Amino acid sequence: MDSTDAPQIIEHIHKSLNFTPYSTLFVPSSARFVCLGISPKASGILSLYEMGSGSLATVGEYVLPSGIKCGTFGASGIEDRRLAFGDYGGKLHITDLENPTKPIYSVQAHSSIINACAGIGGQQVGFGAPEICTGGRDGCVRVWDPRVKEPVLSLEPEEGQTARDCWTVSFGNSYSDTERCVCAGYDNGDVKLFDLRTNSLRFEANVGNGVTCVEFDRPDIEMNKMAVTTLESKFRVYDLRTQHAESGFASLSERAHKSTVWLARHLPQNRDVFMTGGGNGGFNLYKYHYPTSRVGEDKKDKAPCGVAGTVELLNSRVVSTQPMVSFDWSPDREGLGVCACLDQSLRVFIVTKLNKY
Q: Phi first, then psi: what are they for 185, rounded to 5°?
């Protein structure tokens, strides 16, 4: 691709922090975002920032009892904009940004640190009840309804089996009031897709390295594709439209960053464009290209099977010497993104020309 015609990645704001950030999230329908992390004293930090004309104003910084690893606005309505987050003590909290130190919902979700959480059902798009999914170091994946204190669903290791860290969770396939799936990634390379309607394991694979992130390109449509990032500088994209009885879903594998690929985030305005963040402190912008036909014929049993597409690297940029552990696209402004790196810094970026893809 001609580099002059490629999307440009422009750093808009850079801010140094006095704590280690783990998650950055845009507040829906606003020019604000939150940054969640842990202080040197192991207490949790929740910072709220507002973007101005080329500057960043701190709206509030709140100290919480335990370090925070993850958060989501997915289960909250736009008028409420309540933040759900999981901490190092294994507790799941839902809080109002007007008073984050007093949660409106709190439950002991896991026996130790909550590594990841995801929310769905709260925005004006999509179907089904608002739910939050959490994955913890204890190897459990649990789905929570904010209206009750007990988990709606708990997926736990079998008795006597070694518990593997669950590093990432994501909701998908929520295109009706009854359909919904949860995908979880584990430190041993397992990727498990659970169907919440049938209460069964729909797909299972091992990608060979610890899974750092799984994300559906859209959570509120019929399953289309899913990005899976791993250690050892690899990511995969699964085509989820056609499942074969033996081989499962078709996928492509790509090397990136020459280090751990920590995350993948699909552009809200275009599900075929996604950003990956790496352990080299950089991010890569990719475009997914579908094959001519997405359904093929298996050579052995002649049954329908999926056909994976290809990815095209649109642009890349290294912004830090430390790993990029969080990235979030603005749901309201195409191309606006905020990221956090382990060098204790926040950066706001603008990615141009995305409307051409």
A: -120, 140
